[in-house]
Design brief:
With about 350 residues, the protein is an alpha/beta fold. It folds into two domains: about 10-260, Aldolase class I (TIM Barrel, Alpha-Beta Barrel), CATH 3.20.20.70; about 270-339, Four Helix Bundle (Hemerythrin (Met), subunit A) (Up-down Bundle), CATH 1.20.120. It has 16 helices and eight strands. The protein has helices at about 10-15, 30-40, 55, 85-95, 110-115, 125-135, 155-170, 200-210, 225-230, 240-245, 250, 255-260, 270-285, 290-295, 305-315, 325-339, and strands spanning about 20, 45-50, 75-80, 100-105, 140-150, 175-180, 215-220, 235-240. It has an eight-stranded parallel barrel with strand order 1-2-3-4-5-6-7-8, surrounded by seven helices.
Length: about 350
């Protein structure tokens, strides 16, 4: 198949949204989480959890691509290391309507390493280049990469510029960089999010060295004030992970105004009410309430009534027959505390 050209209009649109993005997070950024986050922010770019190419191509698990049209702009993150398999998975993702297909070159988990993909691919940039080129032949959606600054005993100052250069030569124009090394042996995935030191200055230098690329910085960003500081250093975008999940109101409710220049903020109480029809539909399709409400526990973090909100949902959302009325009962704890 001949190479397809990414639409410049589409690229410009997604690059604008990528000024702020919510990182792909395993077991967290599923479709229910993304629907909630989209109600909180109209403009922030959202990412799926990583979906492995073998699961889609060999396992036929195309249900992992399910998402609501209301989630857009939304990107699919793929994991894999076989170029042709990734190309087929990319075609499936593009046909499902994702705005962007992202290749994971950053996950340090043992399960990912055993599949020879994720952060271990930092050791074989030539293979990554082959993968992204194969992916580019299957879609006019943009192919992007999320990487680390290095792994194990690699010297990031040497490895990262070479990696980015090879991605640029392969046609990649947008990269998200987690500003930590990944230690593939001796640290758990959780420890890999905290223990290796952050090196923001190195990522800033990459933007100076590769000015034509759109580079987003990821790792340890906990507030929009910190996001602004990274943007002020010249970064094109900021990707926020755990803070956006655990404290979505402080990050996402004001993001449209503070990051994208919109006129207003979203209201978490209103968003709870906006979630009710979505919840009702999920329940009628055989789903369970806690599959959605587990992503809503942090909505009122730091606000009056937050603890009672979390406790009520945690205790009642798993009960048989729990539905929208359970969410409204939990919300009463918040509105009463605010009053």
């Amino acid at each position: 198949m001949a190479d397809l050209q990414v639409s410049e209009n589409n690229r410009d649109k997604i690059w604008g949204h990528a000024r702020l993005s919510v990182a792909p997070m395993m077991d967290w950024t599923d479709r229910h989480c993304r629907y909630l986050h989209r109600l909180l922010s109209r403009h922030t770019l959202l990412y799926t959890e990583m979906v492995t190419a073998p699961a889609l191509v060999r396992g036929g698990a195309v249900h992992l691509l399910d998402h609501s049209v209301d989630e857009h702009p939304v990107a699919l993150q793929l994991g894999g290391s076989d170029p042709q398999e990734l190309a087929r998975a990319t075609k499936l993702g593009a046909d499902a309507g994702y705005d962007e297909i992202n290749l994971n070159v950053g996950c340090p988990s043992d399960r990912v390493q055993s599949g020879t993909f994720g952060a271990v691919l930092m050791k074989t940039p030539e293979l990554v280049a082959d993968c992204v080129h194969a992916m580019q032949t299957e879609t006019d959606a943009e192919i992007t990469v999320k990487c680390r600054i290095g792994v194990d005993d690699q010297v990031p100052e040497d490895v990262l510029p070479d990696f980015i250069n090879q991605m640029q030569l392969a046609g990649i124009k947008r990269i998200s960089i987690h500003a930590r090394k990944a230690w593939l042996k001796g640290l758990s995935p959780k420890e890999n999010r905290d223990v290796p030191p952050l090196d923001y200055p190195l990522v800033y230098q990459m933007k100076r060295d590769f000015p034509a690329l759109h580079l987003s910085i990821n790792g340890g960003v906990a507030t929009l004030e910190e996001a602004h500081a990274h943007l002020a250093e010249g970064m094109d975008g900021v990707m926020i992970g755990r803070a956006a999940y655990h404290n979505p109101t402080d990050i996402l409710c004001t993001a449209d105004r503070e990051i994208f220049g919109a006129d207003d903020d979203s209201d978490p109480v209103l968003v709870v009410h906006q979630m009710l029809p979505y919840i009702e539909t999920h329940l009628t399709q055989g789903g369970k309430l806690n599959q959605i409400t587990r992503h809503m526990l942090g909505l009122f973090a730091g606000k009056p009534g937050a603890r009672a909100w979390r406790r009520y949902l945690s205790e009642h959302a798993t009960k048989p027959g729990a539905g929208p009325e359970t969410v409204l009962a939990a919300l009463q704890h918040v509105t009463q505390a605010a009053a």
